[in-house]
Design brief:
Number of strands: 8
Order of helices and strands: HEEEEEHEEE
Number of helices: 2
Largest sheet: 5 strands, antiparallel
């Protein structure tokens, strides 16, 4: 991918959010390929190794895809990108478990910004399998390995 003039506006808010979290170097690596762009960042946030990947397109400037380690958020409004990342790392997000009768178990990372709620899911049923930064976001004791399941769940 080649560099291209015209930085995606979504990235400024993300870099500002990383800076507010105490990140010394919040600069994202950006690459363009025709109308699409990708930006990524690796570093430490509050003592945890984190990888962020943002994907967007010049033809769709109002929404991006955000990957925070193993979690992928689809259709994030560009004006919410920085706040979403900030809420994840300040504990203003939560992780819950969902699935159907013990099948298709997944862990859902939920972040609310104004009237909009963003979700990203990963397969699994135990917070112990998540990145270290995500474990404290587990909403309740039943997401810990070895804990009894909620009454009424298999």
């Amino acid at each position: 991918m080649a560099e291209r003039a015209g930085r995606p506006r979504a990235l400024d808010g993300l870099e500002a959010a990383l800076g507010s979290l105490g990140v010394a170097d919040s600069a994202l690596r950006e690459r363009w390929d025709k109308d699409a762009w990708v930006a990524d960042w690796d570093g430490s946030v509050r003592g945890h190794d984190v990888h962020l990947l943002v994907m967007g397109a010049g033809s769709r400037p109002d929404g991006v895809r955000l990957m925070v380690d193993e979690f992928t958020f689809e259709e994030v409004r560009t004006e919410h990108l920085g706040e979403l990342v900030q809420k994840v790392f300040t504990g203003e997000a939560r992780i819950t478990r969902s699935g159907f009768l013990g099948l298709f178990e997944r862990l859902d990372l939920e972040v609310r910004i104004g009237s909009k709620t963003y979700f990203a899911s990963v397969s699994g049923d135990c917070a112990d399998d998540l990145s270290a930064w995500a474990r404290p976001l587990a909403a309740s004791w039943e997401l810990r390995r070895g804990a009894a399941r909620r009454p009424g769940t298999p």
